[in-house]
Amino acid sequence: MGSDSPTHPRRYDRYGRYILREQRLLFILIGIAIATAVFTVIPSTTTVLDPTTNSYTISKSSHLTTTNYKKSFNSYSNGFESSVNLGGKIPLGLKRKGLRIVVTGGAGFVGSHLVDRLIARGDSVIVVDNFFTGNKDNVQHHFGNPRFELIRHDVVEPLLLEVDQIYHLACPASPVHYKFNPVKTIKTNVVGTLNMLGLAKRVGARFLLTSTSEVYGDPLQHPQVETYWGNVNPIGVRSCYDEGKRTAETLTMDYHRGAGVEVRIARIFNTYGPRMCIDDGRVVSNFVAQALRKEPLTVYGDGKQTRSFQFVSDLVEGLMRLMEGEHVGPFNLGNPGEFTMLELAQVVQETIDPNAKIEFRPNTEDDPHKRKPDITKAKELLGWKPKVSLRKGLPMMVSDFRQRIFGDQKNPGATTTTDSSTTA
């Protein structure tokens, strides 16, 4: 059979390609006609802002073909308008949407009390802790709660999470612990803070740094205001913590100015309360544990050094107000009530054992002589001030310590509080 035969398959292929090529315009015209017919039947819609409700709604044309279609479309659009409210207020009766929050160091003293408050508020909380000073017992009452997660992780290593807020508390806060491995302490303050700020930048989270009154060093100004730059020994035995926190504040502000990260900075003064480490070397926990064990209360130096002590619940309230507010800080969070070490020892004697003895020992290196916060800024901008006095808060801490030291048998009526936390 010749190549020109009408039954040759190649000839049919050429006929098909010819028809498709020449009739392409016709197909396009048919498509336009179909589209025109469809858009003539289906109503056009426009999204407009209703100034009376401050919400976006859909306005639609009325040229519909059938009554049934009109009812169906109206039902759909009304449902859409009621469910979409961009920028409007939450209607009355609806609960606040819980946030997804990470708390580094959340198994520690302050962190665990903060977690309690956030969970009670309805948020979902992820605790990140390497358990160097933290303890699972502090948060075990949240195990099984679907809004609680616990991750064993060191913030010196990067971490990827999707969160709305970051409370960065991770770092040993007592001299006994932060002097144990000073290089690790400063890495936690610097590299750990860098990692958490990087996470905040990536996911658009608000970041709160818990700094410390130690950034003032051995202050030459009394009381200390946030504008005071401090008097810090950069090469002393406490420098890993003091200078580490100062650098963490620097990094926080650099991320805020340079990368647009929403940040908050709290400078925490001495705090006490339930769940403090019993033997962490801080003065309140030292005195309470020693008095309960019938040991002498050890006062370093002449006992005339002053400190200000806030109860943990007051601190947690201040941290949450700072995070939810509109001010970057730094803010001093502490109780301006000032006590000498001897006065504190006497309060502990009154609370636990009037016969407890006081023993003087040589003072430690770089120990600040005076420490008292000026909280005027926190009062004015956060509406915050401490409410729990030392004589009211100390018995709650004593009850917790007694139960942990001796067990329930020695103190069957002991109770613990789940209010907030602190640093020293």
TrEMBL record:
Residues crossing the lipid bilayer are 24-42
Q: Mind listing the UniProt keywords for this protein, alphabetically?
A: Decarboxylase, Golgi apparatus, Lyase, Membrane, NAD, Transmembrane, Transmembrane helix
**What Gene3D superfamilies would the database entry show?**
NAD(P)-binding Rossmann-like Domain
Which Pfam families does its entry note?
GDP_Man_Dehyd
Pathway field of the UniProt record reads:
Nucleotide-sugar biosynthesis; UDP-alpha-D-xylose biosynthesis; UDP-alpha-D-xylose from UDP-alpha-D-glucuronate: step 1/1
Q: Which GO terms describe its molecular function?
A: NAD+ binding; UDP-glucuronate decarboxylase activity
Q: Where is this region: Disordered?
A: 405-424
Determine the domain of life of the protein's source.
Eukaryota
Q: Where is the composition biased (Low complexity)?
A: 415-424
**Swiss-Prot/TrEMBL cofactor(s):** NAD(+)
Q: What is its EC number?
A: 4.1.1.35
Q: Where in the cell is it found?
A: Golgi apparatus, Golgi stack membrane
One biological process term in Gene Ontology = D-xylose metabolic process
Q: Which family does it belong to?
A: Belongs to the NAD(P)-dependent epimerase/dehydratase family. UDP-glucuronic acid decarboxylase subfamily.
Q: What is this protein called?
A: UDP-glucuronate decarboxylase
This chain's source organism reads: Artemisia annua (Sweet wormwood)
